[in-house]
Each structure stands twice: as C-alpha cells, then as structure tokens.
Amino acid sequence: MPALQVRDFPDDLYEKLKEVAAREHRSVAQQTIVAVEAMVSGEYARAKEEPRRSIYLDFDTEAKRAARIKKRQELFESAKALAEECPQMSQLSADDIVKTIRDGREERSEHLFNLLIGNE
C-alpha cells in the first residue's frame, strides 16, 4: 500500500483535521483518506448542496461502532497501565511500533475485503 507524506503541512490545518477525525472516531490517516476520496469523487463540490454523508466503507451498525469505540478506549487505558507496570515497554523501537500498526491495518483491510466479497 502506498504511503503519503506531506511536507510543510500547516499546523492550524492539521489541528482542524485532528478535530474532525476525533469527532468522526477515526484516525488522522483515515480522515485524510475520507477527505481525499470526497474531493476526488466530486463530493467536495456537492458538499454545499447535499447533506453530508460519509463515503468511508463502514458496514457496522451503530451498536457495533459504539462497541468498537469502547473497546479502543479500554485498549488505550490498558496500554497506559501496562506501560506504567513495564518500563521496558517504552524501549520499543520505532520498527516494532510500525510493524504492530501495519499488522493491524492489514488485518482490518483483509476483514473489509472479505466483507466485500462475501466471505464473512
């Protein structure tokens, strides 16, 4: 999967992007993809004429989404507790962290793909 790096991104615009991502319960990367998809697909031009709708692939019900958000919050809390108990956790290399994130993204992508083709 290609990576995108934007140099000299304005701080104020990044803060606004973070706020929108938090409101939508997405990461900054996910929100950036949604924004680019909307712009490229023409949703950006129609935004003033039509009510806002998400074009992000989300097959979950509101209950599943709420459960996923709760699970994520619990995960962050347990990670904080674990970091306090195990100081060596803070010695993880950037490569370890990147691998963990990449594995999670691949797992989610595979799950979405299986939903699209009807394997789940």
TrEMBL record:
Residues 2-30 form the Antitoxin FitA-like ribbon-helix-helix domain. The keyword Iron does not apply. Keywords: Lyase. GO terms for molecular function: lyase activity. The keyword Ribosomal protein does not apply. GO terms for biological process: regulation of DNA-templated transcription. It comes from the Bacteria. This is Argininosuccinate lyase. It comes from Ellagibacter isourolithinifaciens. The lineage of its organism: Bacteria, Bacillati, Actinomycetota, Coriobacteriia, Eggerthellales.
